[in-house]
Amino acid sequence: MSVKEVMVPDIGDFSDVDVIEILVSVGDTIAVEDALVTLETDKASMEVPSTDAGVVKEIKINIGDKVSEGSLLLIVEAEAGAAAEAPAAAPAAAATPAAAAPAAAVSTAAPSAVSLGGVIYASPAVRKLARTSNVDLTQVPASGRKGRITKQDIESFLKGGAAAPAKKAGGGAAAPAGSMGIEPIPVQDYSKFGEVEEFEMSRIKKISGAHLHRVWVNVPHVTFHDEIDTTELEAFRQSIKKDAEKAGVKVTPLIFMMQALAKALQAFPNFNASLSADPGVLIRKKYYNIGIAVDTPGGLVVPVVKDVDKKGVFDLARDLAEISAKARDNKLTAKDMSGGCMTISSLGGIGGRGFTPIVNAPEVAILGVTRSYQAPVWNGTEFVPRLMLPVDLSFDHRVVDGAEAAKFVGYFGSIMTDFRRLSL
């Protein structure tokens, strides 16, 4: 027998990540890749797998602690040769209850959860959030394991999305103030009007919902709408179909958008930036990674394709197919979803002529596209059919103004209209 230290593996660009759930107890027998703890960032949650098999002897962290790559999680007593390398932490955001950690690795209650009168279970970090938000925990419905109240429960309660608010003295509903002191929307008893049924939201939607709410409140959004003539580009795409089949890839219009967007980010560096924690300081990035919003059964996730500016059409097609498959199979890692410069949200496969995408902060802009359509366009002598692509650019007005946004879309459009410009 040997004693092993189990550390936090590579979790991408994240550090000081909150521990929201401990999935094992002292005395549990665990196997390699069994989930040990759940970590949470502002974009996703992830389960950390064990790198060793054996019996848990000590747990070195508590719920509410912050950990980074290399942080000590627990001590296990393992048989010699039992250790094996486990993959990086995989996101649990889209996991269904059936896909949770194996039963042998799940504790009956989070070790550091606090019980108040045998009724309320919440970590110290959650209780602190409740105190600072003036929330009465007895009024908050719990969604965590074994009835534990989570941060998302409190955030949902503050927004009025999880429970009926307390009654005022005069009989009206009154809920705690939400972000920026704004009163949440009052909750009604909908069953008074007919039959209702409650469904638990997916973990992805719970987490992304809180993130999107923060972004919408904190980022001054403006959206610029335009249309781009992609007639020649579509003809070129059709002409390389056989070459793509030989290469074993499928080339979609999104591939060309990624290349054109990377080129536009090079020409307009303010779009390839993020605001610093220091007021008035802008961090410009020298790399070009494009996030792609992918619709999954559990909700929307944004995997990131790295170094788009350095790859050809077929290479990007492979990367996009691989990362999209991982997203649909709930196998994205934190590394897969970090490091983005700008995001593309495409509704082309669904339809529509325009929408207002929400900036994926800390990025400063997001490009939305909908379904292309044939439109009659005047060429100086007659109307001719052209394939038009609607685009919608939402941006952070603190960093980008309307004139710069219009120029950015114009530059992006010039490449999409004549893809030879990509080589300039």
Protein architecture, described:
By secondary structure, the protein is an alpha+beta fold. The protein is built from 8 helices and 25 strands. Strands 15, 18, 21, 22, 23, 24 and 25 form a 7-stranded mixed beta sheet that branches. A 5-stranded antiparallel beta sheet has the order 7-2-4-5-9. α6 crosses α8. The radius of gyration is 25 Å and the shape is globular. About 13% of the residues have low confidence.
Mind sketching the topology for me?
Blueprint: E1 2-7, E2 17-22, E3 29-30, E4 35-40, E5 45-49, E6 54-59, E7 66-67, E8 72-78, E9 90-91, E10 114-116, E11 120-122, H1 124-132, E12 148-149, H2 151-158, E13 166-167, E14 173-174, H3 203-218, E15 221-229, H4 231-239, H5 241-247, H6 253-267, E16 273-275, E17 282-284, E18 290-292, E19 294-296, E20 299-301, E21 304-305, H7 313-328, E22 342-346, E23 365-369, E24 373-378, E25 383-396, H8 402-417
